[in-house]
Amino acid sequence: MNKLTINACPLCGGTHLKEGMTCTDFYASGERFQLCSCGECGFTFTQGVPVEAEIGRYYETPDYISHTDTRKGMMNTVYHYVRSYMLGRKARLVMKEAHRRKGRLLDVGTGTGYFADAMLRRGWKVEAVEKSPQARAFALERFGLEVKPEAALKEFAPGSFDAITLWHVMEHLERLNETWELLRELLAERGVLIVAVPNASSYDAARYGEYWAAYDVPRHLWHFTPATIQQLASRHGFIMAARHPMPFDAFYVSMLSEKHRGASCSFLKGLYAGTLAWFSALGHKDRSSSMIYVFRKKR
């Protein structure tokens, strides 16, 4: 298997890379992967992940909920209830930040198509792209969505979209800097780029360490903090216009993290830890388990 070796920080170009925790792939393989961080800017990433062309098998498990519709088990049931609530919240956020009720939207990494469908039903013109053929097939069967493969990103005209969204997608993308350049080209001059990612400087990340479910190696290649994603955006001609915590993520991530630790009553223990994380983020939103970042082009 070909693996990706990162010798220079993709954020600042620094070559002083420090080894950090070793994390386990609890979903698909049981393999262990090293986290590394840049000694100059602090950006953290997973070292030695399979290259993009070969990582597909690490997604092929019914437990990987991002691309499935299972409701098996208490945690998955909770996930689906919360997702239903969050779809409305995300839609309202896009309209508020884009300063428009309707417009042209690109949803990158749309998964099974729930958010793209929610925006279509609100009158937006939506293009959606997704790498997984299984997820594209689900979106077509469930919502009638013609989701395009990832390669279609390079076929859209410059300035085509008033809003571009990536909901827990950026952390998966191997070609990080290339993606940011492409997104900037596709976004209209007054458009808005909305990116949601896990927060590696969150309360629950510190609490669980190598068992933190949002490290999700090797599927998650990049591990952002508010500081590093802002630096990355600035490098590619964006300014951060707003940031919003995702408080519900702490509960689900904590439940999974307890499960990874082999805890009994992982649901209840995760619920307790998620509550602590919730209160922690009330006073310091940059400690939220996941964050939504709103970016605009620099003028």
Automatic annotation (TrEMBL):
UniProt keywords, alphabetically: Methyltransferase, Transferase
GO molecular function annotation: methyltransferase activity
GO BP annotations, alphabetical order: methylation
InterPro entries found in the cross-reference section: SAM-dependent_MTases_sf
Extent of the signal sequence: none
Recorded superkingdom: Bacteria
PANTHER family registered for this protein in UniProt: METHYLTRANSFERASE TYPE 11 (PTHR43861:SF6), TRANS-ACONITATE 2-METHYLTRANSFERASE-RELATED (PTHR43861)
The protein, known as: Class I SAM-dependent methyltransferase
Species annotation: Bacteroides pyogenes
